[in-house]
């Protein structure tokens, strides 16, 4: 208040009379242009984000995600969704024609489209022994995981999950070819690398992970195609486990992250291997003996044999005989017992120190 | 030296929920394959063993190189030695990405750079803002 008087002695009564109006009207209209665009903010909020969030287009921020949920719908619906793109590219650009058709055509009969084609209907029977209806989806994990492996041929085998990933590829390419896509969600996806958004949908149910977390990971790792795993191990825990070995001294900041990644890949292999074992046994449930068998069958996992040795083979035999549930329960008890023992050992160590 | 960190319980194993989540990401529910509880516990033990193995191997390597700190490099070498050479590229990538995000995070703090304006522009804007505020104030007064 005292500011206004000394600094504006020149203010005339005339100005004073118009003052109230100026005071009220000024703020909304006379604010310089950039302010409306959110570019000015030297104080506080980040301008760009503010701009987007206040912009009507920002509503799209949410749409793409819900859109992805739609990928869980049966494949036909997805095709319906994509057809417009196809038409567009045909109209707009002949060069795109080949690509977009190749990528988007949902049905198999074009040779070029084979790579991206789900092939679901024809091949499913392979994975569904008729006597075991519940067993049918069994084939999926391997292929969905193989899609992550670097060898391109692994994309070919059919799997239920494949359509999702495949259709997302064309979508991504489409975005690159066509900067102005018809539906509103597209620009947002463009920013946020759609590839990774897809991954959670293929590897886990949509609700399995909070969206914010997914987005954060998206930002972190835009290109991970080789692993379906989105969740990260807690690095602090990994570091602690590493340093539990008294010989291990200092550990660089990056190291637990590297170890965590290696661990993740290791887990993926281990789980897949044991899933294969389970598949061989026509079981839907992976049990400890199956894990053991998977470990025993792989040379690099020699170091796990000791750990796994306590799992007895007998139970395995009994299991394939008949009542897997009851068996696995009893197995459970035995196992947790040992785990607990181990835990105590760890604590003792701590107490001793 | 870091013994005081062993405060919590279950410290030397991996969180079950996280492992379970990762397992179900590897084997999505749509596959119909589930992982039994005892298998998961066994898996956790295997994972811990894996970490221990890799870190002790990496430790040896770092000692050979007369380094006191285990770096990423040692981990990748250890993975190679242990027959997990195929993990190396992905591990390196993850580490690099982590570095990248950290750098971005550090940068993010600078509001002035974020504003995309020069300091003079910002100053002008500030002056303008002050004037607006003054007018408003005197208008109300």
Mean pLDDT of chain B: 86
Alpha carbon gyration radius of chain A = 29 Å
The mean pLDDT of chain A is 54
By secondary-structure content and strand pairing, the structural class of chain B works out as mainly alpha
Counted up, domains of chain B total 2
Kindly provide the radius of gyration of chain B, computed on alpha-carbon positions and rounded to a whole number of angstroms: 26 Å
Strand content of chain A: under 5%
The CATH superfamily of the largest domain in chain B is Histone, subunit A
Give unreliable regions of chain B as ranges: 1-8
Biased composition (Basic and acidic residues) (chain A): 312-328
Biased composition (Polar residues) (chain A): 196-206
Domain Transcription factor CBF/NF-Y/archaeal histone (chain A): 232-295
InterPro entries (chain A): CBFA_NFYB_domain, Histone-fold, Transcr_DNA_Rep_Reg
Name a few traits of the molecule.
heterodimer; A: 353 residues; mainly alpha; Histone, subunit A; 2 strands; disordered C terminus; B: 141 residues; 2 domains; elongated; disordered N terminus
